[in-house]
Design goal:
This protein is α+β, with helices and mostly antiparallel strands. The protein folds into 5 domains: 94 residues, DNA Primase, Chain A (Alpha-Beta Complex), CATH 3.90.580.10; 127 residues, DNA primase, catalytic core, N-terminal domain (DNA primase DNAg catalytic core, N-terminal domain), CATH 3.90.980; 120 residues, 3-Layer(aba) Sandwich (Dna Topoisomerase Vi A Subunit, Chain: A, domain 2); 72 residues; 125 residues, DNAb Helicase, Chain A (Orthogonal Bundle). 54% of the residues lie in helices and 11% in strands. Strands 1-2-3-4-5 form a 5-stranded antiparallel sheet. It starts with a helix and ends with a helix.
Length: 581
């Protein structure tokens, strides 16, 4: 059953969109709206806007939009009923009995949390079984104490195809549930189920509410892959979570230490630095960077010192910088990673290393200069060219001038010459960005690559009129009765594109309440983005009255008639061609 509209209205009344979003985004008032950096894509200048008058948000950069429920769906990775329940709890409301959709989803998520917790307990108990001696020896060899094992809830997955699943069956869990949680796999050949993790050290991934949401499994030897991780599930998205954030979030006001792997995080944590986290088997994502930005202003990258670690650090720097984080980097001499460094030199030396961490630009410049022998002219030219690319990423004119002077000194070249090269590179970069922006604007205008309304590209004139009509009706829902009464001669059959027809039908079927929130139960997030954009586009125009609605209805009908005439001519041409043959 659907969640009653009256309950949705109460949810939105008690959860003002600007207040809810302000707990995720640093909003600043700009006239009648609020603006901030979009939490759903990386940007340097604010394009994320909250409209209190329509209780909606829209990002002019990535196109995300909707109401407060749509925002929570994205921010908390929830389906519609789950987002409604999240906001209900926030405002002290009980979900209505008839809203069984929300309750069933809540039960499903709760059951998956319980299932993961039961699996974590099984793995932990299995670690101390007699047959798990190799696993205990491995942990001992890696220097992990009993306290570390207990703190992080480590365990061992027996090297068996059914040990975990048999145990979970005894607790009442079905194979289909275990597969959905990525604890079991299903053979395509036999159709039988098997334990996904086997013969591996197990690292539970725990969220900020102490729920076990996923696992990472580390092979004891040289088996491939070395790490096996839970894929995305209803309670887990690897691109939106961080290992050990449940510990780090309470100790990272000054900084977060970002490591490459679980072992590094545990070593750093047990050495007295609980503000360490790691990504979950993937390269750093913009979502993870935005999560870190919620808890701290500075991130210290503590990646491996090998070529792969340096490359990963270079990829991570712009991602972290784009969300406003200050980035520092560790220079570990004499050790490959934090785990090895702490074992060799101790926690005190590691603390000094953290305090002396290098700024991102110094790190990038040093990385370039280490690659080339600048005493050889050809090598010096290559170094200068690559360094110009690094300096181009500096937005501050003053900071850019400082680094030009420093690098020119190290290369023994004139700063003015280096500055001209940088300026030429920046102009070229700007031209490329402008060209790409123009291409995107033209593509969007013509409807190419439109995943929401695939019929737009072949019916651009009619589709634009349809979007104008929908935008007006969202802003002026009191005009919908004019359509029902026939004052405005418009019906669903007048719409050329199926998507816009569906939106129109949903709008005209609404009761007294007719806004984006009333549509959200029937449309995907991507579709809600598009509908919100229609409303925002019309709200920027001064007139959205009955006369303007009538004009767009006439434009739609004329465009549809033109299209029908074109189709008839094509059919006649086709018939004539067949007769000639």
């Amino acid at each position: 059953m659907r969640i009653p509209q009256s309950f949705i209205d109460e949810i939105k009344y008690r959860n003002k969109i600007e207040d809810v979003i302000a707990s995720y985004v640093n909003l600043k008032r700009a006239g009648s709206v609020y603006q901030g950096l979009c939490p759903f894509h990386s940007e340097r200048t604010p394009s994320f806007t909250v409209f209190p008058n329509t209780e909606t948000f829209h990002c002019f950069g990535c196109g995300a939009g909707g109401d407060v429920i749509s925002f929570i769906m994205r921010a908390e990775n929830l389906e519609y009923p789950g987002a409604v329940e999240f906001l209900a709890k926030r405002s002290g409301l009980e979900m209505p009995e008839e809203a069984d959709g929300g309750k069933s989803e809540t039960i499903k998520r709760s059951r998956m949390y319980e299932m993961n917790r039961a699996a974590a307990l099984f793995f932990n108990k299995a670690l101390y079984a007699p047959e798990s001696e190799p696993a205990r020896e491995y942990l001992k060899k890696r220097g992990l104490s009993r306290a570390a094992v207990k703190r992080f809830g480590l365990g061992f997955a027996p090297n068996s195809f059914h040990a975990l699943s048999d145990h979970m069956h005894s607790l009442g869990y079905r194979d289909e549930e275990l597969k959905e949680a990525f604890l079991c796999g299903k053979s395509e050949r036999t159709g039988g189920y098997f334990d996904y993790f086997r013969g591996r050290i197990m690292f539970p991934i725990i969220d900020n509410f102490s729920n076990v949401i996923a696992f990472g499994g580390r092979a004891l030897g040289d088996e491939k892959p070395k790490y096996l991780n839970t894929s995305d599930t209803p309670v887990f998205k690897k691109s939106r979570n961080l290992f050990a954030l449940n510990f780090a979030r309470n100790a990272c006001a000054e900084s977060l230490i970002l490591c490459e792997g679980y072992m590094d995080v545990i070593a750093v944590n047990m050495a007295g630095f609980p503000n360490a986290v790691a990504t979950l088997g993937t390269a750093l994502t913009s979502e993870q960077a935005r999560i870190m930005a919620k808890y701290t202003k500075k991130v210290i990258l503590s990646y491996d010192s090998d070529d792969a670690g340096v490359a990963a650090a270079k990829r991570a720097i712009p991602i972290l910088t784009d969300v406003g984080l200050e980035v520092k980097l560790l220079r570990m001499e004499g050790a490959k990673d934090p785990d090895e460094y702490i074992k060799k030199f101790g926690a005190a030396r590691f603390k000094t290393l953290l305090e002396d961490s290098q700024g991102k630009l110094d790190y990038l410049c040093d990385s370039v200069l280490k690659k080339y022998d600048i005493l050889i002219p050809e090598e010096k030219m290559k170094a200068a060219d690559e360094l110009c690319g690094v300096i181009c990423g500096i937005w501050s004119d003053v900071e850019r001038e400082i680094y030009i002077t420093r690098i020119a000194e190290r290369l023994s070249v004139e700063p003015s010459n280096l500055a001209r090269d940088v300026e030429r590179r920046m102009r070229r970069k700007q031209r490329e960005e402008d060209t790409e922006l123009r291409r995107k604007v033209v593509s969007d205008t013509l409807g190419y690559g439109d995943r929401v309304n695939r019929e737009f590209v072949g019916n651009a004139k009619a589709a634009r009129a349809e979007e104008a009509i929908i935008g007006i009706l969202l802003l002026r829902p009191e005009l919908i009765p004019e359509i029902r009464r026939g004052t405005v001669a418009l019906c669903a059959d007048d719409f050329v594109t199926a998507f816009n027809r569906r939106v129109f039908e949903a709008l005209t079927a609404c009761g007294e309440k007719c806004d984006i929130g009333a549509l959200a139960q029937d449309f995907t997030l991507e579709e809600i983005d598009r509908i919100t954009a229609m409303q925002v586009k019309r709200s920027a125009l001064s007139k959205n009255d009955l006369a303007v609605l009538q004009e767009n209805v006439q434009t739609l009908k004329a465009a549809a008639e033109e299209k029908n005439t074109e189709n008839e001519l094509e059919e006649i041409k086709s018939l004539l061609s067949k007769k000639k043959k």
